[in-house]
Amino acid sequence: MVASLLCISRKVEKLIRKYRTSDPRELCDALDVHVSVKDLGNVIKGYYFCQSRIGYIALNSRVSESMRRILVAHELGHDRLHKKIAMLRGFKEVEFFDISRPTEYEANIFAAELLINDNELLGMLNFDEKSFFDIAQELDVPAPLLDFKLRILRDKGYHFEPLYIANGDFLKDNIDGCFVEEAWIGQ
């Protein structure tokens, strides 16, 4: 069953209140979700798996620090929303970014809600001179993640029309600034 935007939003708000942080790495520490960084090659940016009821997030060392923050938030979404699925059968590599799977959409909603504060975004949207893409850059998030956040705000009753540029698999795309330049030298 697909979780509603507001249900996911409430789960994120509860986590932030309980642990007094919206930093995805701090939440992973508090929730005993282990994060490791290793070379995963040129294709996979990160993934989540669960072993013996403990969540693990693997991040590609070739990915920029800014993108790692987004990936940790996304994978933490899998831990909080889909841990039972991961314990039963795990996430297969081909499913990581399969847009037909609601789990990716839900993890993106979780990440958007965790990383983008409502009040901060609402304040930025009140300035007419800032474009959607300017705001995404200022928040240091990919534009599709901001699009997910606007969908959440719409469901919360705000009158915003999301651009609907984001789909469940946007993280698999080569997002500008995603990979660390030095990692590609000599390849």
State the helix count: 7
The fraction of residues assigned to DSSP E strands is 5-15%
Biggest sheet: strand arrangement: 1-3-2
Main β-sheet: number of strands, strand sense, barrel status? 3 strands, mixed
Low-confidence sequence ranges: 92-100, 179-187
Please state the average pLDDT score: 82
| CATH architectural label | Orthogonal Bundle
The name of the CATH topology is Arc Repressor Mutant, subunit A
Order of helices and strands: HHEEEHHHHH
CATH class: Mainly Alpha
Spatial gap, N to C terminus: 43 Å
Q: How many strand elements?
A: 3
Global morphology: globular
Main structural class: mainly alpha
How many separate structural domains? 1
Helix proportion range: 40-55%
Please state the CA-atom Rg, rounded to the nearest Å.
Answer: 16 Å
Structural commentary:
The chain has a single domain (5-174), classed as Arc Repressor Mutant, subunit A (Orthogonal Bundle). The protein has seven helices and three strands. Strand 2 (46-51) and strand 3 form a beta hairpin. The termini are far apart. The protein has helices spanning 5-19, 24-31, 65-88, 102-115, 118-125, 132-139, 143-155, and strands at 34-38, 46-51, 54-60. Helix 2 runs parallel beside helix 3. Strands 1-3-2 form a three-stranded mixed beta sheet. The chain has 187 residues and is mainly α.
